[in-house]
Amino acid sequence: MAEIRPFRALRFTDKAGRAEDLTCPPYDIISEEQRQELLARSPYNIVRLELPRDGDDPYRKAGETLREWLKNGVLKKDDRPAVYVYEIEFSLGGGRRSIAGLVAQVRLEEFEKGVVLPHEETLSKAKTDRFNLMKATNCNFSSVYSLYMDQPGKTLDIKALAADERPAAEMTDWDGLTHRLWAVTDSRKISAVCGHFADKKLYIADGHHRYETALNYRNYLREKGAPAGAASDYVMMVMVEMSHPGLVVFPTHRLVRGIKDFAPDRIIAECEKYFEITKGIELSSINQALQSGYQAGRHTFAFYAGGGSFAQLTLRDTSVMEEFLPGLSPASRSLDVAILHSLVLERLMGIDRENMANQRSLTYTRDVSQVLDGVNSGEYQCGFILNPTRITEIRDVALAGEKMPQKSTYFYPKLITGLTMNMLDD
Q: What percent of the chain shows pLDDT beyond 90?
């Protein structure tokens, strides 16, 4: 099963400045406006390496910048191998909560081996971008985020590993989230942790593109003569236990544009064959209506085409999905996003899977207000507001060897980039 090991993380030194000015969000949620703000924070902000966009060859520039920072002592590897405890403290629902995971190197395994399992489809453009960056820098600047499952009574107490240690880094980011990092160097603790994961499967929560890119990069280097067991056989990963009380998944909503002869009333009428339809619900009741269906185990989502109300669509009978997705497991067929995509977006609106993958007619957001504003401004024709995907659904789809549609999940909070990095040298 999963093979993990300690590593000497590459980290910013005091010479670089405050961690608050050096770190950034995951590359795939950074807008150009935010990227410019991050660049202005510090000449050493990690966004210069993680999301290079300037010059004729931004990847080459990132590699040059990395080597310059290493030479100047802005970045330095820790003196001793360690596994790292990473905690994020955040506010949600009027209260304060936290989530903690373990940071280590994880041996890369092809998905078909059943050790590391994906749950979402990936986009080719993003993988090409990440591969070009890895070729130029030979480094993981951000972690893959994965989940694992402990047996009852045999839970690894992540925070206890660092109980006697002072944080190696602590910062509060631009959104008020507090990030803490501890380096665990005790060889007995490290050995116990590595042994704990020997029978574990790892379910990728976030970072599918990074993981697949790491596999491609490993194979690329092997073709050039890199031996088995080289540093490129491993990827930096944050691992969180699946039942952790701080684990949060937000829904990702859909905005639709470019549909020829779009007619909301026709769509609603055609949906009545498969869905119970409740029309004219006030916008202020969206969350309450969806949560009620979610708690009852129903498959339901909101359809918004403008104005002061929405329609709620609730699937009558899940057995209908056997007809439209006969080749998939019950776990995949019963996903809200699969039901929406197959019965409504594909069948009624003509948005095929290639269109979805290229986002020609479909845009994603986790902000309900963006759905409402986008439709009311005329930029989009309609929107679908969803409930979150359950953690158990993610596990079951991955165990079935299948993948959810793109943007089926939004794990919160996002891991910060720049507290630890993983140089792939030997």
A: 83
Domains along the chain with CATH numbers:
4-248+412-423 (3.90.1530.10), 252-387 (no CATH)
Find the distance separating the first CA and the last CA of the chain, reported in whole Å: 24
Please state, in angstroms and rounded to a whole number, the distance separating the CA atoms of residues 62 and 57: 9
pLDDT tens digits, one per residue of 352-370: 877 776 778 999 999 999 9
Q: What is the pTM of this model?
A: 0.89
**Which amino acid is it at 372?**
L
Tokens of 319: 């057995």
Q: What pLDDT is attached to residue 124?
A: 65
